[in-house]
Amino acid sequence: MTRTGTTQAHLRRALRREVPSTVGLLADEHDFTAMRRYRSFVFDDHTTYLRQIEALLRSLATQGGHTTVTLFDPEEYAAYCAETAIDPDDPTSRSRFTAHLAATGAQVTYTGQPLSTLLPELIDTAVRHATWEYATTVLATAGDCATCGEDIGKAAFQRAARLLNRLLDAAGPGTHHLVCSVPAADDQLLAVLHAHGTPRAAAVDDTAAAEFTAVLAAGIALGAPGGLVLRTSNPGDRDRLHGWRLSGGTLAPLTEAEVFAAYCTDARTGEPLSPEPGVDHRAGFPLPPDPDDDWTTHH
Predict the structure, then answer these.
(1) Which of 7, 28, 103, 107 is least enclosed, having the fewest CB within 10 Å?
(2) Taking a C-beta distance cutoff of 8 angstroms, is the pair 281, 275 a contact?
(3) Are 176 and 197 in contact (CB under 8 A)?
(4) What is the dihedral of CA 78, 83, 84, 89, to 10 degrees?
């Protein structure tokens, strides 16, 4: 190769490192089987497909560029092809859909982690993304209060944020794990938040807090019978479990017996479960008064 050719090849490699890559991944057998109806999809079994995906990711990583992975949903793909009038049985169409997902869907950055680590992270991210979209849609379409004219979604989000802050302030020091569950249509919205409390404040991730607040706010706006549980851990102490019922736009503390029943009952069968060792089931504690609490009056 000439010196000019070598220089050009070097420049192309340098430029390649600045071009991001997105890989659409069929995470399970069901989705993989759905794609096999297209003749241009060349894989016969999911295991081989995953091995090739992992090899592709490693190859992209060696080129030094930024690579993200997103879930490839065959049903969404078919709908996208119908809406954009492109042939679904064409690799170019799959590439276009993956590019669309890169702009709109949930993604995980590939940093060399094995698929056994990447897949659960990707699925969790996709579920959180879908939950966020659903909750924010509920808030955006809640309309205005018939009594006071206030935007219900905005007011519910502000109220949920104050409830969360008061709860974390009252929870005190320790590592806190919060779960909020809200029934919505035919699904169950679920949000999880980790916080590290100190004697003065609780440190939380802003994105996770926003997602958690949106789900709690959706429950408030819908008037849904949701619930919230808090697990607090401190070194050398037994874990403490507390619970609240979402009712009337506020969090009403559960009794110790209700918290025990919630944790020690199989949600699917209703059968009792053995209590977890090293854990105390306690009543939810009352939250400090909210000076701006006028939700029940106006909504």
Answers:
(1) 103
(2) yes
(3) yes
(4) 20
